[in-house]
Amino acid sequence: MPHISIIAASVRTGHASNRVALFFKEFIESKKLATAEILDLKTYNFPLFDERLKYQSHPSANVLDFADRIKKSDGVIIVTPEYNGGYPASIKNVVDLLYDEWHRKPVAISTVSDGNFGGTQVITSLQFSLWKIRAWTVPAMFPVPNVNKAMDENGKPLEPTMEKRALNFVNELLWCIAAKQKMQQQ
What is the assigned CATH class of domain 3-185? Predict the structure, then answer.
């Protein structure tokens, strides 16, 4: 069974995007699609990026733990809010921190906002950053507009279409994971 890491990218107090990360963990595990874990960047509390991990002489235990979890994951879901048309520094920080760990890693992006567009302005810029470090960005996307109306604090969906959309999104990630595994066997 594949293992998926779900990155909760916001470090803001009361970060609503964490609701979506909780939703995906519960959804993936309850449907027995994969095992899943949440990597909450607020908990990791990384310092600002100053050097890639592979060039650090004394990386912190948090950095090594995060890098190991990404490396061991078969795929990653990034749940990121949109702040003023861009993604938060916290996700850019960890994207830049790692390099080899992202290589050909299937990564799916879910965006979150309080507004009607669901953070869709963030998708292409984050995809481009991931593409530049050779991650495999999954073409499916999962925007969550009006997140406070779409999910409760525990990640329970309040909209009837949420699970159907999530299944399509996760299945696309799982397809990419399976395709990568087949390519590695050749």
Answer: alpha beta
